[in-house]
Design goal:
- By secondary structure, the chain is mostly helical.
- The protein has a single domain, classed as Helix Hairpins (Orthogonal Bundle).
- The chain contains five helices and no strands.
- Helix 3 packs antiparallel against helix 4.
- Belongs to the XseB family.
- It comes from Steroidobacter gossypii.
- GO terms for molecular function: exodeoxyribonuclease VII activity.
- Its main location: cytoplasm.
- It catalyses: Exonucleolytic cleavage in either 5'- to 3'- or 3'- to 5'-direction to yield nucleoside 5'-phosphates.
Length: about 100
């Protein structure tokens, strides 16, 4: 088995992770942060750096998907409660929040 296929197959979602999306998101985010730290140190070989980078891209996509699903659930819950008229979705602007 090649190193790349080992990475891909070792993180295939199981029934356990599918039932705990929040915990899975937290684990993915923690792993992504650890990868960023390793890459920022600059001590890895080129092959190791590429492997870590590839895993980081996978984790980023997974986290983005989990966040999108959570956003959709919130929108559905607001519609069911009749509160969609009370709330409007707006993009998050970190810089604007820092000024408040």
């Amino acid at each position: 088995m090649t190193p790349i296929s080992r990475i891909v197959t070792s993180k295939t979602p199981t029934a356990d992770t599918a039932t705990e999306p929040t915990a899975d998101f937290e684990r993915s985010l923690a792993e992504l942060e650890a990868i960023v730290d390793k890459l920022e140190q600059g001590d890895l070989s080129l092959d190791d750096s590429l492997r870590h980078f590839e895993r980081g891209v996978q984790l980023t996509r997974s986290c983005q998907s989990a966040l999108k699903q959570a956003e959709q659930k919130v929108e559905i819950l607001l519609k069911r409660s009749g509160a969609e008229n009370d709330f409007t979705a707006a993009p998050f602007d970190a810089d604007a929040n820092d000024e408040r």
